[in-house]
Amino acid sequence: QSYCHRLQHDMYFLTSTSRLNEQVVDKIVLQLNRVYPQILTNEEAEKFRNPKASLHTRLSDLLKHLQKKGDRHCQEFYRALQINAEQLFNDLPSRKILKTPDPTEIDTDKEQYMLNDRGPVFFLACFSVAAGLALFWYCCNSETQVIGRARRILGFSPIIIGRHVRNICMLYLEDISRN
Which parts pass through the membrane (predicted)? Predict the structure, then answer.
């Protein structure tokens, strides 16, 4: 992105109230007047430092003038802004756009832990549910005759699963054994 486009994008941010004070604007204009190659002539510098005009008007005119002059002039403005108002320079909207990563780019550090962010308790809970469902399915299969053994295993289930779940399983097993 060219500096002229960036300056166009940052113009509202820079000209809004209380972003830049008169001293900082004067320092920027003086630096643009004294830098090599000279960005602003002496007449232009006097025009943009005129205390009779409002700060908003002078700053807007300066930014428009620099955009007309070209990319090199806009680049020098950004350099002067960085030297004289570094915090404001870092807060510019165009700088924030440049700092944000590409949303399509894959973050390899985050990708490594994508599946492991739940921890061991989540794994044990999922494993317990899977084991319980497998046991339940095995006990309900009509070809197997292990209901007596399943009752013994489910008899110790208050240690593993809740009392209500154990009661439901025991009632189901008794109902199956009657049939």
Answer: 120-138
Strands (E), the chain: none
- Domain-embedded: residue 139: no
pLDDT at 87 > cutoff 50 = yes
Token pair for residue 36?
């090599």
Sequence-separated (6 or more) residues with CB below 8 Å from residue 166: 154, 157, 158
Cis peptide before 93 (omega within 30 of 0): no
Read off the CATH number of the domain in which 30 is found: 1.10.533.10
Burial class (CB in 10 A: 0-12, 13-18, 19+), 114: exposed
For 147, residues 6+ apart whose C-beta sits below 8 A from its C-beta are 139, 173, 176, 177
How far does Cα 57 stand from its chain's mean position? 36
pLDDT at position 121 is 79
For residue 51, give both structure tokens.
Answer: 């205390």
Q: What percent of the chain has pLDDT over 70?
A: 71
**Domain, as residue range, for 75:** 1-95
